[in-house]
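Course assignment 3, question 2. Fill in each field.
Student: A.L.
Task: Predict the tertiary structure for the chain below.
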Amino acid sequence: MPTTTEVNPQHEPSHIPMWMGLCFFLAIAAFFLWQEHSAHMLGVLPYLLLLACPIIHLFMHRGHGRHERGDAGQERHMHQR
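Answer field:
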């Protein structure tokens, strides 16, 4: 029978969840990457902007090709008048 003085190892305050440890590791890795390679990363920014243009274009034209519903609704509305 467990007593109240026993400590449950799963509920210890020092137990860090896996995702929090991963985020901490990635933050440290990003810091050191920035410190050592900031000139390289800043040199890539213009190319990232150029790459972002077609990607944004694809997302902005996502709704095209669905004009049939809008036109059919307008025709029904005009026939009702």
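Instructor remarks: The two ends are 81 Å apart (CA to CA). The chain has two helices and no strands.
Grade: pending
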